[in-house]
Amino acid sequence: MSQTRHSPVLIIGSGPAGYTAGVYAARAMLNPVLVQGIEPGGQLTTTTEVENWPGDTEVQGPDLMVRMEAHARAMGCDIVSDIITELDLQNRPFTAKSDSGTVYTADAVILATGARAKWLGLPTEDKFKGFGVSACATCDGFFYRGQEIVVVGGGNTAVEEALFLTNFASKVTLIHRRDELRAEKILQDRLQKNPKIETLWFHEVDEIYGTDSPLGVEGIRVKHTKTGEITDIPAKGVFIAIGHAPASELVKDQLELHNGGYVKVAPGTTRTAIPGVFAAGDLTDHIYRQAVTSAGMGCMAALDAEKYLAEQGD
Ligand code: FAD
Ligand code: NAP
Questions:
Q1: Domain boundary among 221, 240, 259
Q2: CA 9 to chain centre
Q3: Statement to judge: residues 131 and 236 lie in one domain
Q4: 293 and 250 in a common domain
Q5: Domain check: are 27 and 12 in the same one?
Q6: Which atom of ligand 2 is nearest to the CA of 187?
Q7: Is residue 113 in contact with ligand 1, taking CB distance under 6 Å?
Q8: Would you state the pLDDT for residue 156?
Q9: Catalytic annotation on 139?
Q10: Which residue among 239, 242, 258, 264 has the greatest number of ligand 2 atoms within 8 angstroms of its CB, and so is best to mutate?
């Protein structure tokens, strides 16, 4: 039999945005319920060293998320292992159906379901993920100082990552499957002017190769999309930058999305177009996509929700 649970604030997602919202909402005495989803702890549980979380010179991603969960719990956030499968934001209270059968109702909802990098889907990409293959230059570029790097993709992300990686790499090769970039002209201009970057047009990645012990990348094999010619490119780091997919399925027909599926919020806030519904973290951020910015937005969402609920009570 399905159970219904009501709380003033329902937080969906257990990454840095969700847990931070949990800490703030709990300390505001809003008795938040936080539903963790299929990946408790979020994206950082899929990485090793994190070197840009303030206060920790180096911390393991999964350890950091265990600490955030414990922190939110200690403040009084009710953390539930469940997955939201349907969300009704048109009626009040807001209603969320879940995988377990529990129905969550709430006066305010904080969406913190994150985003996922898109991958090429090659077996060798999977093998070297975290060991030379990455989808986050800001996170991992530092590990490739003085090395050769390749970036795959032709959008803003790929070009920005290629430019950023020249701060560390001896050489960056941008590999694109066409001869035209989607990236903005100003970025294309910077790319062309950068002496450390070479662009390889009409090429797709066939496989990533490297060593097994220790596990590490040595290069990639690319195929010309027209001639089929195969070329090996030596590289220690491979950055896949072919786009991100925000986890906005639950709200895609209820809230305005932009920039390829990200939830739109009022500038400088976490407010969506529906009063009482707030969005934080990578779900709403196509630019920064960092743990610390997500945590910051989680804080903002809880404060925005607190203000909204206080106004309802007036
Ligand atoms: P996420 O961490 O994506 O969490 C989303 C949460 O939503 C998950 O808990 C998921 O289970 C939950 N969820 C999704 N759908 C549902 C649903 N239907 N019901 C319930 N819950 C749901 N950033 C840095 O600052 N430094 C780094 O070094 C760094 N390294 C990274 C390395 C890797 C490999 C990756 C992939 C990312 C890295 N990032 C790093 C980026 C950072 O992880 C993200 O910016 C951050 O995790 C985003 O936090 P978030 O809370 O918005 O969402
Ligand atoms: P994107 O614009 O969708 O570009 C993805 C790129 O990857 C495209 O060039 C695409 O090739 C290529 N690609 C996709 N799948 C591929 C595959 N399987 N194999 C090889 N290549 C593949 O994604 P994005 O660059 O991440 O940008 C997403 C959104 O965020 C955009 O709206 C962008 O403007 C925005 N963004 C803005 C900024 C900024 O304002 N500074 C920064 C980053 C992102 P094709 O071109 O051939 O399709």
A1: 240
A2: 23
A3: yes
A4: yes
A5: yes
A6: 41
A7: yes
A8: 87
A9: yes
A10: 242
Quick one: tokens of 310?
């206080």
The pLDDT-based confidence of 37 (bands split at 50, 70, 90) is: very high
84 with 126, same domain: the answer is no
Residue 109: which domain range?
Answer: 4-116+244-312
Q: How far apart are alpha carbons 175 and 251 in whole angstroms?
A: 34
Q: How many domains does the chain have?
A: 2
According to the model, what pLDDT value does residue 198 have?
98
231-288 pLDDT per residue, tens: 999 999 999 999 889 999 999 999 999 998 999 999 999 999 999 999 999 999 999 9
Is 77 an active-site residue? Answer: no
- pTM, 2 dp: 0.83
Q: Is residue 169 over pLDDT 90?
A: yes
112 and 251 in a single domain? The answer is yes
What type of residue is 47?
Answer: T
CATH number of the domain at 286, please.
Answer: 3.50.50.60
Cα 86–7–253 angle (5° rounding)?
A: 25
Q: Which residues pair with 6 in a beta bridge?
A: 105
Q: How many Å apart are CA 265 and CA 308, to the nearest integer?
A: 15
